[in-house]
Amino acid sequence: MRHVGKSFANHVVLNDINLRVDHGEIVTLIGPSGSGKTTALRCMNFLEAYDKGDVLIKGQLLGYSGTQRGPAHVDSASLIAEVRKPLSMVFQQFNLWPHMTVQENVAAPLVLGKKMSRQAAKAAAMAALGRVGMAQKADDWPARLSGGQQQRTGIARALALNPELLLLDEPTSALDPERVEEVLDVIRSLAGQGMTMVMVTHEMAFAAHISSRLVFMADGHIIESGTPRQMFTQPKSERLKSFLAPLF
Ligand code: ADP
């Protein structure tokens, strides 16, 4: 993200955001509620149109061209879809389709988006469900699942797309406390497999443990960033110090 800015009406939500994520990194956005973390994540995927700066994915501009504001291309929707192909996203509220089974939820984007055959999509869905320990629930309806199982299905759906970068937006904050750990375990195992991730979470101990870099945001700005050790032991700004203070 280069100099990315975003406003909702008169409210500036992101201000000159500069953030580079390299292959193999796990970057976690932290900061108080309302600081712009989710919006930043959504701009990375063009789920939210930013209004200043550029987002580049593997060197390709996402959504806008150069200094010219407005769609980059006449056929901008398909261009955006093409550029953001290496990304997939896990949502706070899972966003599963209630009328589809677990397996169909994971397979549908492969058939609709990737134009896979139903049979190939089913096999890929089963493999992704296996990675999150949900293969035995493949034929269940989402409503029959616990929140943790629904979110593991959401993660499987993102993984089935074979992303190079996984975006996770508060993946455990809609869960009952006793369901949080099973989802964190899945994310830990993806980290162990070298998955590149950008995540928003309030699970600070987990973030400190798993992240290669923490990025602290407040009021739409990146205030500071660094390794978890740097951020926890030598916070530079008063704002980060006071954000972290309740943890100690
Ligand atoms: P965080 O993830 O750090 O809690 P968000 O990115 O969700 O912050 O929100 C940042 C600010 O943008 C908040 O003040 C929020 O109310 C506002 N905001 C987010 N989405 C919208 C929207 N669709 N319309 C208007 N305001 C929004």
UniProtKB/TrEMBL annotation:
Residues 1-244 form the ABC transporter domain. InterPro entries: AAA+_ATPase, ABC_ATPase_HisP-typ, ABC_transporter-like_ATP-bd, MetN_ABC_transporter-like, P-loop_NTPase. The keyword Transport applies. It is a peripheral membrane protein. It is found in: Cell inner membrane. One of its GO terms (molecular function) is ATP binding. SMART domains: AAA (SM00382). Keywords: Amino-acid transport, ATP-binding, Cell membrane, Membrane, Nucleotide-binding, Transport. Gene3D superfamilies: P-loop containing nucleotide triphosphate hydrolases (3.40.50.300). It comes from the Bacteria. Belongs to the ABC transporter superfamily. This is Amino acid ABC transporter ATP-binding protein. It comes from Phytobacter palmae.
